[in-house]
Amino acid sequence: MQATASHARVNSRKLDVVAIGDAIVDVIAPCDDEFLEEHGLRKGVMQLLDMPAAEALYEAMGAARQTSGGSAANTMAGIAALGGESAFVGQVADDQFGAVFTHDLRALGVRFDTPALSGGDPTGRCLILVTPDAQRTMNTCPGASHKLAVDALDEELVRSASITFLEGYLWGPEAPRETMLHAARIARDAGRTIAFTLSESLCIPGRRQGVMGMIDAGLVDILFGNEDEVVLLASSANLDEAVAGLSRKVSTLIVTQGAAGAIGLEGEARVAVPAVPVADVVDTTGAGDLFAAGFLAARCRGRRLEQCLETGTQAAAEVISQFGARPGADLGQRVAP
Amino acid sequence: MQATASHARVNSRKLDVVAIGDAIVDVIAPCDDEFLEEHGLRKGVMQLLDMPAAEALYEAMGAARQTSGGSAANTMAGIAALGGESAFVGQVADDQFGAVFTHDLRALGVRFDTPALSGGDPTGRCLILVTPDAQRTMNTCPGASHKLAVDALDEELVRSASITFLEGYLWGPEAPRETMLHAARIARDAGRTIAFTLSESLCIPGRRQGVMGMIDAGLVDILFGNEDEVVLLASSANLDEAVAGLSRKVSTLIVTQGAAGAIGLEGEARVAVPAVPVADVVDTTGAGDLFAAGFLAARCRGRRLEQCLETGTQAAAEVISQFGARPGADLGQRVAP
Asked: Could you give the number of structural domains in chain B?
């Protein structure tokens, strides 16, 4: 009842941000470093698995907890928790994990109406292994999520949102990439802002040209990446060179630097903010997602660059203080965008 | 791989405890007291919901996390984490929640081979609402779990276990009740110990005669209950009268008293132990289940009554210090049965 009411309320308002991203349920278990070695997993990164490989890894993992995930979906959940109006476009299957994903986004007040896929791949899942050093190693079996096609896109939703936020993870498979490009063109025609997050350095080498093509076509206003990602994308020798090159191509360039904080470049302005100290880092899953949530929620309230960066680091600090990729709905009581 | 190997290892060993109980996935979300009132939910108890009612409540709940549950299954998970050899009999459906339940038990080393139900009800789930006072209010949609029939029972498994542990929640529906009675008779014929947990005071009035009939037939050696449950079962005016009456009928009577600890009666012996102080009670879900795990794990190591009660209170203290009904696999590093 409550979720429906809040859902209806969101429908009638102007949106701050609509995201296109993976619709994923996270399956999170602690593990030790030996487990990663035994299974040939590279700590801290994301890799894609097909269903048999995902099933084999799941069988080997310890008892887990399941929570809704997906990078851009986590960002939209964060924006809603911070009091913003957000919507999500992504594809689940018509199964129990799909129902969980749908419920959790709507319960947070995020508008989510992309039709579920029937009779095809199951809802995507991400097997997340958290080592004692709080690092997360992600193994994604994208399922229905990577079958997202242009006709699932509600074009009016994109036009109604101040910012369209696109997730780099979804750049690989053709259908979702076309959907994101289509959304970007609609947003551009409607005079909206387009944000893109690079998501994962391992993904970049094979997609560099395509992503740079999108940037060169003027379809990215705000670009989010970490140090590795921007260096790889710019094919630069170092971070300074990468930042100098990329900041000429986008209105706003945001580089996250983990424990070192984040930097933002906008025209001639360059602002650096430190990370918010966290006494007990439990699980770094969702740090980048919630940084983007804080940044975008503040941006939608008209805050200046430094404040947006600060809100980003505050939201990231909240999510790494707990297990799992989404903070509670009470995030807005602790962080004010 | 790991889970399979550990599973095979368990198969070849003598079992400490086999349990018959609900096979349930917990869907846990925080809520406030007003939410319970609005939805007419009585705090701290368990109620059964049919699928439409469960779906309506789920829609109204906040974003949740999913973890494997089921009272007796939690107890078996606890026994395995404490180094005991345990097995579980209960019925999931052939769906994603069923796969989660199965994986998590096996990953902890609990033997679980009951065939999944195909084409019928989905895997059971329990919508658990946790209020700020750490109380849990449970709303169970039992699904396939309550269709467990005698022919799903591996009789050899029951004969091989020192203790057969039966869950009172499963007493209501006819098929699982018959399955539990059948298992009790097999255990009795094989000279094994039979334990029964009363599970929930609200369930008792309608089942008093049946449960007392089982006790009077000599099919219960160890009886677990909390104060309300034993008073209702014995139809007594007060706890002392109930304890006096019931302790004459079973070899071992265990009464849990929440923050006041637990008492145990065995023949002429009566032992009371205090609860283990917990600085920050987060969620009381699983307290009784883990108490039984600690008690039974210690009993299987030949500990005397007082030690069994103490191990029970230690395991209960661990589970209420965290969110969710099962402690980590490292429970045995903190509690020694």
From this structure: 1
